[in-house]
Amino acid sequence: MSSATADPALQRRYLQAMGIDLWVPRRPAAAADPASGPASREAGPTPAPEPAPAPGRDWEALRQQVAGCTRCALHSGRTQTVFGVGNREADWMVIGEAPGAEEDRRGEPFVGRAGQLLNAMLRGVGLAREAVYIANILKCRPPNNRDPQPEEVACCEPYLREQVALVQPGLILAVGRVAAQNLLKTDAPLGRLRGRLHRYGPRKVPVVVTYHPAYLLRNPVDKRKAWDDLCLARQTLAARGGAPG
Q: Domains, the chain, ranges and CATH?
């Protein structure tokens, strides 16, 4: 455990940055509602597996392919693609929905106010932003920040699967409804996907679902639930022998 999580005063400051003054455990975060069944029921069909990287394939080759991608119509309106950022050997991989206006301008996922809140959430479990790998379902911004369309997701999905295969994370944190539904191939609402473990790909990477920081900025009452999700993610990775944060 990092010193950030070991120091109660520091952790309290991080929780306050999320808008949580004091966290009082109610029940273990990993406990699932027995009436709702196992995680596999909620996750729907088995997600498309992440492929092994092609022989000789590396990060730079993948980045260049994404930068020049014209597979869907979104390429015509982008400033630049938003590939991903962070530690390419991370235990935690954070996957969001799609770039917004600021991300499109800067070429980096989760910047601006939502990015600052995500950083605070990660610090709450002892992780610097640079310690995780952050990517999105889509690499190009949809017009007016609308939800990704199925054909757009299908075009970008191979890129994300290859990123997962290259990182080989111990855990995926799916941030927001759109990211969770597309990763898990389900139309279940976010409320039914939270609070339990899901699996992704042939390696059965654990997936924990939480709220998008942009949603939490509009609905701060749910920040405490997001903290429960982060605790579940941290406990899950610790149980697997990875860096818990």
A: 3-21+57-239 (3.40.470.10)
Asked if 122 and 243 touch (Cβ cutoff 8 Å), the reply is no
**What is the three-class DSSP state of 68?**
coil
Predicted structure pTM score? 0.81
- Are the C-beta atoms of 158 and 119 separated by less than 8 Å? no
Give the H/E segment covering residue 23: none
Q: In the structure encoding, which two tokens stand for residue 94, read together?
A: 């954070």
Residue 241's pLDDT is what? Answer: 77
Q: Are strands 133-136 and 85-86 parallel, antiparallel or unpaired?
A: antiparallel
* Range 81-89 average pLDDT: 97
Residue 183 has pLDDT above 60, yes or no: yes
User: 37 CB contacts (<8 Å, ≥6 apart)?
Assistant: none
Q: What average pLDDT does the segment 126-146 reach?
A: 96
Of residues 193, 160, 18, 158, the one with CA closest to residue 93: 160
